[in-house]
């Protein structure tokens, strides 16, 4: 194990020396070595979301990527245990697609402000209020919410999902900004339920084709157009990328808007003097450490407090003590799986 720990340390040193102190890297390398040993013994696979810290991302991940991509790939493996280094709704999605596997989350909570902005009861209320209107639910939701919708979507395929429905009106939940960005791209007029008058007769007098929800990601809602203006003043040649969970004003002011995978691909496939990513800051560190030839600016240091709950120590304990096990009631899982599979058929 000492040889493996030294190999991990050297690799992390090469990638993270300007990000993590050397003394800390040695400790992290030893933890990573122990984790890798345990996952071999237990026939486990470790999935790491793009928002994981660089030391974890670059030392123990068998598969790295966005939440849905990870769950899809995990469902194709023959491993008995899935350790999902992400937040709870992501681990639930892995369980929905791989019910026969044990899914572990390396933190007791690891919630999400966006996922917690809506409940299954909220969806049922909207379906009663707008009968017959198809419901699209972002994958960044809990399983019981997915179970109440017609189809799920990601930030990358949301437009394609909405257009696939061929519906005059669509309910799009729960991210307000993603919904507004999709509405702008599909030419739909969006309204939030709280802004609609009370009676159904009054509601029919307002023209709208999309019904949104007032849920937001606590990280992405922080970014503003002023941030972009300030960066452009000092770095006019910087390419600015924004996640679609940012406000429409921010995504329109940016040079590129896309999912985490799309943002990574854009950096990989283009040549620019420097890049600034308006998203969770750990992803910028991960790109910078993997691609030292690309200048990734570290001006926006916004860390998701929920993603930050996932650590190497927690990952080690998840494997050691078989915790924290993700369970999804079968009746909910079956209905949620239907919505996810419908989305996968679109791409």
Describe, in plain words, how this protein is organized in 3D:
- There is one protein chain.
- By secondary structure, the protein is an alpha/beta fold.
- The chain has three domains: 124 residues, 3-Layer(aba) Sandwich (Rossmann fold); 102 residues, NadA-like (Rossmann fold); 84 residues, NadA-like (Rossmann fold, 3-Layer(aba) Sandwich), CATH 3.40.50.10800.
- Helices cover 46% and strands 13% of the residues.
- The protein has a five-stranded parallel β-sheet, with helices on both faces.
- Helix 5 packs across helix 16.
- The longest helix is centred in the first third of the chain and has 20 residues.
- The chain is globular, with a radius of gyration of 21 Å.
- 47% of the residues are buried.
Would you identify the CATH H-level superfamily of the largest domain?
NadA-like
Order of helices and strands: HHEHEHEHEHEHEHEHEHEHEHEHEHHH
CATH class of the largest domain: Alpha Beta
CATH architecture of the largest domain: 3-Layer(aba) Sandwich
Q: Low-confidence spans: pLDDT under 50, at least 5 residues?
A: 199-203
- Number of helices, counting only DSSP H or I runs of 4 residues or more: 16
Instruction: Provide the spatial order of strands within the biggest beta sheet.
Output: 6-5-7-9-8
- Quaternary assembly: single chain
Determine the N-to-C terminus distance.
42 Å
Number of strands: 12
Q: Compute the number of structural domains.
A: 3
User: Given the helix and strand composition, which structural class is it?
Assistant: alpha/beta
What fraction of the residues are assigned to beta strands by DSSP?
A: 5-15%
